[in-house]
Protein 1
Amino acid sequence: MATHEQQHPPAIESPNPGLFEHILTHYRGLFAVLVLLPVSLVYGAYAALRNRIVFQLRSAPTQHAAKVQNVVRQIEAWKADGAKQRLCTARSGWETMSELVPSYKLTHRKIDVGLYDILEIDGQNRTVRVEPLVTMGQLTRTLLPLGWTLPVVPELDDLTVGGLIMGFGVESSSHKYGLFQSICIAYEIVTADGQILHCSAVENAELFHAIPWSHGTLGFLVSATLKLIPARRYVRLHYQPVRGLDELVAAFEEASRAPEAHDFVEGLVYDRDSAVIMRGTLTDEIAPDGRVNAIGRWYQPWFYRHVQRFLARDTEGVEYVPLRQYYHRHTRSYFWTMEEIIPFGDHPVFRWLLGWTLPPRVSLLKYTETETTRRLRERLHVIQDLLMPMATLKASIEYLDEHYGIYPLWLSPMAIYADARHTGFVQPCPRGDGSHDELYVDVGVYGSSYRPGFDNRRALPQLESFVIDQHGYQALYATTMLSRDAFRRMFDHTAYDRLRAQLPLCTQAFDEVYDKVSTKGRVSPVEMRKIEKHAKGPS
């Protein structure tokens, strides 16, 4: 069995690195512990306290309308000034979950959409109405004590509702409920001409189905109404080690096509022929077949390491995991990428003393990138979520094993539903007989490849071609090297183009999605720091 051991990248050094760059490059783990973790803790404590106070005082619902009118006033001012610049939100580009930074924010007119609050929890109708910058951590901390949860709760605490709608969101319950967009009942947006539109399956329906994946290019999202389901205390989690690629694919597909039997399905692939398939069920009771495991406690091993033990022992097992800890089981280690940042982060001594400080904020990690780590990242590092038809799972694992050799791989099944008008960027997979298969799998590739001669700048375009040929999709938070034509082959722009032409001032105000997510609109953190410094001029 292959083990996931820390590997060291080849030496690539800037020609004349300064002392600070040398420290950030060669002692990044220590820098993260001594600087990034304390700063992250302070900011996180501030944000949590503020959210709790606002929700307890119930001030957010009364302030929401005023905040939306402030967005409208900013757009009216843009129109009065001649509508000359493109528009974007004023939120810092460093806050995005992408490893790159949006450079278009330096040239676009910024609209302040500072909307961070949970507005209303409606137990009778089983819905929650939230503003777009509400995070998954904020929602689970608020909803679970009230006995509610979202049907789909993507992994990381800092993921925002707006980002998951305008971009993409998946979780191990997506085989049952679909992508994050599928649990959305209604959106409230402000268009480029300052209109406030309410969108649902029955009101502005075409726009409702086109908003997901649109990256803010049809209007500014100011609220969303999401479905709720009753929460339970635990997830009964069954671990099944599997050997052999055919057996792996068969076991994973069988579990994924049984949404009534399993609330959660997940796979961790440790090498081409070895994986652990996990099936989870919501429950309030602890049966004699397993024990409670509080996997989210700071002293616990990182989750993927814990799961690997079942593979090493080659035995199945059952555990009862507290629900919120299950939702955020990969947060402390950012799946397994934290190992490259803090190599000693899963050591028992570190976990006991400082495990409670993890993880550092993504924005801080990006800001401390150096020229040396940039070159290493661009050549060796891969962060991709590939949304592949379930029928292509075996071929996808074989391709990634041959060309990348990065493990573990994350497998999360998901349903992509078609609306009546077949609107939206992503659609179910066509079969040869004219029918469609709604079941896809997110194959998460996170880590660095140290195979001799590997260069992701060459490998990524080939991978993107493979994804298109297999009728798959690429998550757009990740780096893409697609041409505009290839991007349009991957994603269905039919309704999107029609709506942009119909909505007043839309094409004048907003870029296309491609212009925001491609290299036209994103740069490396190092390059962004240089651009910002140049824009400020000499100090």
Protein 2
Amino acid sequence: MKYFIIFCTPFLFISVWADTYTASTASEIQNYTNLLQAGDTLLVLPGWYDMNWNIQDRAGTTVSWIVITEQSDNVVINGTAYDNVVDVYNSSYIEFRGFEITSSNTGSGVDGIKFRTTSHHFTIEDLDIHDITGVGISANPGNNTFSYLTVRYCHIHDISDVGEGMYLGNHDGLSPVHHCIVEFNWVHDCHPHKGIQFKRGTYSNVIQDNVVYNCDEAGIVLYKTDQASAADNNIVQRNVIWNCSEGIFAVGQTDIDNNIVFECVFGINVRNYGGWGMEDLYLRNNTIYHCSATCLRLDDWNIATGEMVCINNSCYQDDLGQSAIQAPDGIGPGCVAYNRHYGQSQVSGSTLGSPPAQEFVNPSVTPGAVDLYPLNTATLIDSGTSAYNAPSDDFNWWSRPVNALWDVGAYEWSQNTNPGWQIQEGFKEIYTGVKETESSIPAYLSQTYSIIAKNTISFRKIAPGSVIRIYNSAGRLIHDSGSIIQDIYEVNTSTIPCGVYFYCIHSESTNEIHIGKFFVIK
């Protein structure tokens, strides 16, 4: 049936003709998929579907995305052929969400979702991908480009044989992956390989707020972007990783900020893998605890180029005789400063701290109990630096600094108990302990700025004639202010769903653009 759909906001009116299809068999799922056009929706009824699904040559538009989703819970897509469960070819502006994806075919190398050819603006959300013999989600065929992909709130687990949670990009840099977001995912038990991996030649991607553990190799891997500017660095921030051989591994051209790593062999390990060259690597405000080899290893820094920065990191072992920081080749021209450690350190830019029990609320390695938030007497407090673009928030999205100086580690101390999420098995949760009065965003900030809002979000110090546009996580415009005549502008967020939103403030008088994001909680 054809429907006339109207999307209304105070400043936006869009009308499109759209079809809504409802599928209750595997053949209907595939047949309706082949018909989808911009603005269409495919609803899959609850049930178990034995099928291998192709999404090919489907294209929405910037304002009329295609939506493929379950009608309600308990939709299982079970691959039966010796092929990937879902293959995507040449598709764009699609939301794909809500399914459980598995495979009863035990042949080697079956992926849950595989992007086969160039695709862009494809959102994967709220999936349960498990018992796969290849990769949970992959985008790696050579000579193809994958951009503006979003993977959010996906549970990827029990991946065997090839054993990778996500594999994005090609080892030789032949399939660029750029401007993608991987966030709020729960990835674990990937054997024998890695959790989340971005290969060489991937750039301007953000990997944030993921929970990764129980991987035989690294939890999160970044190689290098091969781009000329550090502005195109990949960003790895606010993730938590444990029980992996390496928590985070990188070669260069990566920003690694506000991550928590514990109970690994190597916490964070960086080196000149493949002789590709190291440059423009930033390690800032990470907390690394209880790693059997060392918390932080800086290899090959003596031959690195560009900026190599290691600041505000806390690297703590339980015993002074254990290795906390290793730099076997020295640090060359790099900057290693304002770090804290307990154990042995091979760098001069780190200060010996107190034993973990005197620094952290609960220095445990047990998920559900571990709490590496600083005590109010910790030496980590007010001992960091704001230099080298130290992050302006922390693992809990709390703004830095609370006092005059940055704290060391992933948390910024603000009160005697951790105001954020308890690290545990499961999705990272957005904390709700922020007053609504703190959801006021200074419009003059030109960098990305994260904030949490409930009923309203206010923008202040607005230049006359400015326009504020707000987009949801799928890239859809949901609010356009028009030309603003006052210096304060408020948006009612009580009627929009919880989630991540992005704003863009365009000042016509100065031709400046300020961007940022905020979280809506209820």
Protein 3
Amino acid sequence: MSNIHLSHYSKKTSKASGFLRPLQGRSPFQKATYWISQKIVDEIPPAPFSKGGRSRSKSIASQSPLSRQESFLWKSKNVNKRKVYASTIPPLEKGARGIWRNHQFSLASHLTCWITLALIICTTACSYDRERRGTSAPPKKEAAPAQEAAVEESPKSAYATSVYLENSGSMDGYVRGNTQFEDAIYRMLVDLNYWADTLSLNYINSQPIPYRQDISQFISDLEPQEFQQRGGNRGNSDLNKILAQVASQASRGEVSVLISDFIFSVKGGNTEELLNNQKISLYNTFRQQLAQSPFSTYIIKLSSEFTGSYYDKNDQPLSLDGVARPYYVWVMGPNNALQSLRQQINFSGLDGYQTSYLLSDGSASEPPFYTVLSNTLNTGSFRTDRDYASAEYVRGIEKVETGRRGETYQFSFTIAIDLASIPAEESYLTDPYNYQVEGYQLDSIIRVEQIERVHPRDQALIDGKASHVLVVSTKQTNYPDLSVSLLKQTPAWVVNTSSTSDTRILRSEEQQKQTFGLQYLVEGVEEAYEQVFNNQDTYFTAKVSVKK
């Protein structure tokens, strides 16, 4: 082994290399330790030590290949010698070979970086040289495109679609400045344009006013001044007349979209009587159109800031500044068209979306799948009544016993049911107000995936078949049969959003969130559907036999 001398840097760092000693009178092992340590110091570049004094030494130690004697000491079976050697040159990683593997990788990484840098410099130099000579590299032959699964756009529907935006004076407040109204309508129109066979844009008040430019310009023009320039009778729009014009297209097999605040215009007299007259008029309009050809109506409620004049039931202008006000989008068209539309356009994702309501055209549908769950969300116990059961469902139970829930004793059980095919919104399906239950109390309606734990036996029974569960209970001990029906009725949000007075809208937050006469408007359309489609008042009825 050749003699080794300290570098100029190691002399300046005597504190860091103070563990080195003279070799005289030392054992072979001590000499080997000195030589290895000396290699470490000689390899250190002229840069400050990092925290810990020897941390750089530890890194560089492994870059020096071990001599035969050093290897012997490192691989020695003498545990004490290995411990001394390890304390002299602590490895970066735990384990005898960790330090060596780590720095082999480190050297390879540095080498790769230098080679890559050299290639970049050469390539840049060659390119610069070609530019100076006025030449360029020969064109590369493009590689054949990889065979990847193309992301296909959903095919366009076969339905012509017309959009009507009411531009009466009451709508000015939604389009003053940048508003949620503009963002929501813009997004909806873009999605409609991808879905519809053809899309036409119109303003409407006393009559339709075609708009000949594209969607982006249509949105850019949404300002009160543009509404005024488009003309028509902006002072007092007849909502019944507007709906009649729009619904007539739906009865011809097209899709019509009406955007409005849907506020009835009534003046003086008995407000409720005037609203009821409007309701009958609208009932007559929809009954005539539905009799010609069935179609569905999808009512979407949204909200946006409103800055401008609000006209109350007495036609008095009241100034609102940035107040959140509801408005509505009504989509009318064939049942298949609206099914496709609701699947491909995420109306609930529109800015300011709140809720919706679907009035179906009366198309027949199969009764939903339902079954009793024997071991999930139940209080008490029961057995399956084989007379009302099959391999696919359980619709009868017997030998019922109460169980304890908190401080009281009661009996409750769960029915899993598939509501996916019901033409109603989730908010409607999960509202107990919309169910009629006989013999029991309806405690909750829960989506299957929201249940914390479904018993494996029950899971096997409902897997892929049920969307919701209904939990019913009773404190009685006679245990009658269960009958539960989902009613076709006006959603609670329609009732809560409607008002018969709006004269205090400046001070009343409740009136600011309401729409004058909305309930009368919706009920007029509902009654037309009920009359034309044989007064169907329920979506389904599920029955369970219960024996004590």
Protein 4
Amino acid sequence: MSEHQVLALKYRPRSFKELIGQEAVSQTLSLALDSGKLSHAYLFSGLRGSGKTSSARIFAKSLLCEKGVSSSPCDLCDACIQANEGRHIDIIEMDAASNTGVDDVRDLIEQTKYAPSIGRFKIFIIDEVHMLSKGAFNAFLKTLEEPPSYIKFMLATTDPMKVPATILSRSQHFRFKKIAYDAVLAHIKHIAAQEGIPCDDERALEIVARSGGGSMRDTLTLMEQAIAYGKGRLELNATVEMLGVLDPERIEAFFARIFERDNDGAIAFVKESESGDCEMVVSELIGFLKEKLFKPQGHFNANVIERFFKIAAETRSLLHYGADGGFALGLMALKMIEALRPEAVAESIERIENELAQEPPIAPAIAIAPAPPPKDTKKTPLSGNALIKELLRRLYDRSAELGAAYNEAVKFIAFENGEFRAVFAESGEAIERLRIDYKIFSTILREVFGADTKIVKVAPETKNVETASQPPKESETDVKTDAPKDSVSAKEAIQNDPQIQKAIEIFQPEKIVVHEKP
């Protein structure tokens, strides 16, 4: 019985052409090898299983090939064969996770003093270099900056943020990206065909590729698990059960229940799924929404997908903080159904905010109306005084500042034919306060006098009248104090003014006589 070799090792790339999903890196390194413009130190960083260590080994083999430095080593000479088998004496691999100290780096530096044994270069591949201690990094700096001409350093890490800037500045940094889903899927299809593995449903391969998360090593490991669980076959049901993910048909059925607003059906899905990995369930639903975003069909449009994604993301956060899986999934399902209402709450809020933003802060200028004859003022019905009293009470209830501003800036004349007639001050803090809170003032006024009440500004010296929608601006025609034209003295007119009488009634002032000091 031949020795079994796992797929991740059996199909490890041995040339830059076989490197999957890292075209920019492979092209740059290939051109450097072909042109002979080589650096003494390289740093490869990126996701696990993205090809960092494999690229370092391919680069080392290309430097040591007996047919010369080239991006396409022959794989036939002794140097290439030894490099592929991991036994070349001039390729020294070091795991920084288990050799973290200054003494380990000191031993490495000692080896750099000796020329290569059989090859043209001596190459050091240091994996997980970010695990070195601070002292080890400091000890390594000088050698890394100015090594002998025959020394090449290949550093690899999954966390470049932990590598000191002094190391980064002394090496060429290559960032390995997450391998694209399509590239992973195409590669595992090729491997399945090469291995002669029966696959009845391509969706099983799609699930494996998606579950790998952009890591080729993780994907191939999961693929081998699925083959073992399926007794030598790649079957959809076995793959779904083994990985604990959702069957695509179940996802379709779940969203069908959502669009039908079937609460019972959605909750049934939740009860079936809560026994598994709930975070995996949410991730599968998000992946499904992503597919529908790029290939929309049926009820799925950008707005619906956005709402569903926000709900799923909130659910993932709940699970991250330890919420019960069944509760979080159930809440997600019900919120998705609620989000399908014709006018969702978020849209209503946004619509109202937009309407408020479009309204001008100050209404158009108000034309000044002439004062009515004195006889009209005297005939103000008693009910008008009662309404003014109620208006003052409500304004003070709402805001003491607003009530005081009305007392100071507004002189009530009459209420007749659905028109609230008054003299408004032209300037001052009080009228400015009324302008700022005009919506509140006009709303309370119409609650007291009637919904169709029109506000009319009155001025004694002009002859035009126009309905007012807001208090006057400072730039409008000046309005003089409305003084009675009969024989009553000015002092008596002020004392008999309805506004003054109401103010006295509300505040009950005490008269104080001030005598001038002799």
